[in-house]
Amino acid sequence: MAITFRQLQVFVAVARERTLTAAAAALFLTKPAVSIALAELEKQCGRTLFDRHRNRLYLNDQGRRLLPMADELLARSEAIEQLFDNESLGGHLHIGASYTIGHQLLPTLLRDFRVESGHRDQRITIANSASICTALEAFELDVGMIEGRVAGERFHVLPWRRDRMLVAASRDHPLAALGPVAVERLAEYAWLLREPGSGTREQFMRFIAPRLPQWELSLEINSAEAIINAAAAGLGLTCLSALEARHALSDGRLVEIELDLDMTREFSLVLHRDKYRSPLIERFVEFCRQRDEAVDPP
C-alpha cells in the first residue's frame, strides 16, 4: 500500500471543509482531482473514511482514526521544509479564540509574539467557546483560547489567566444608583444575554441564574458590542466580562451594578491530545503562559 502525500493532503482538507468543492479550492486543485485522490486513498485503505450525505462528507470512525496521524505527517513535513530556513520558527499557526479573548487580549498578545519570535504566518478564528472546541476536535485549529469550561478527555486544558464578570445596565436603570444590590433583586428585570455555547452565557448560568427565583430573557445576541449598546439603550441588564465592558463603563454608557458576589472565571488554552505539537505550537503556548496576567488589552 503506497499512500501518497497528496492523498493525505486531500483527506485532511476534505475532513475540514466537508465538501469536495471547498477542499479543491483550499488545495488549488480541480474537484475531479480531489475526488480521484480520495477514492484512491479509500481503496488503498480498504474501507471508506467518510459518510456521504447530500453532497457533504462526514468523517466516520475509520476516518477519525486516520485524521490525527495524517495531520501529524503533514505538520512534520511542513516543519522539515522550514528546518533550514532563516526564520527561527516555520509553519502556519491557526489560533481559535472565544470572543472576549479574541477581541480584547489576542491582538496585543499576537503583536508581542511576532516581535519576540519573528513568526508572521498566523490565522485567527473568533467564535464562541463551544465552536472553538468543535473546531479543535476536527483538527481545524492548532490551539484554542477559550473562556468556557471544557469537558472530555480528548482535550488538554491549560489554565491561563483570570477574568472578572460583572452585571451592568444603563445609567438610567432603576438599580444604577442604589449602591450594593441583593442578587435576588435582579430577578425583577429583563436580561440581555449571549447565545448558548458562549463562555459569557455559561457564566451567567453558573453565577447568577441559580440565585434567582426566575429570570426573563429580553434579547439574545451573539455580539458583546451589540449587547453593550442594547444595555446602554435601556433594554435590560446584562452579564459580561469586565474586559468587554471597560470602555462603556469609563465613558458612562453603562454602570456596574454592585453585587456581593465573586464572579471570577478562568481563561484556558486548549489543545487536542492527539494533535502533533510542532515547535511553533509549543512556542506559542509557552509564550502565552509566560504572559498570563501581563497582557494589557488595547
UniProtKB/TrEMBL annotation:
Family statement: Belongs to the LysR transcriptional regulatory family.
Gene3D superfamilies associated with the record: 3.40.190.290, Winged helix-like DNA-binding domain superfamily/Winged helix DNA-binding domain
Q: Which PROSITE patterns match?
A: HTH_LYSR (PS50931)
**Quick check: keyword ATP-binding in the entry?**
no
InterPro entries hit by this protein: LysR_HTH_N, LysR_subst-bd, WH-like_DNA-bd_sf, WH_DNA-bd_sf
- Species of the source: Salinicola acroporae
Q: In what residue span(s) does the HTH lysR-type domain sit?
A: 3-60
**Presence of the UniProt keyword Glycosyltransferase in the record:** no
Annotated protein name in UniProt: LysR family transcriptional regulator
Matching PANTHER family: HTH-TYPE TRANSCRIPTIONAL REGULATOR, LYSR FAMILY TRANSCRIPTIONAL REGULATOR
Give the record's keywords alphabetically. Answer: DNA-binding, Transcription, Transcription regulation
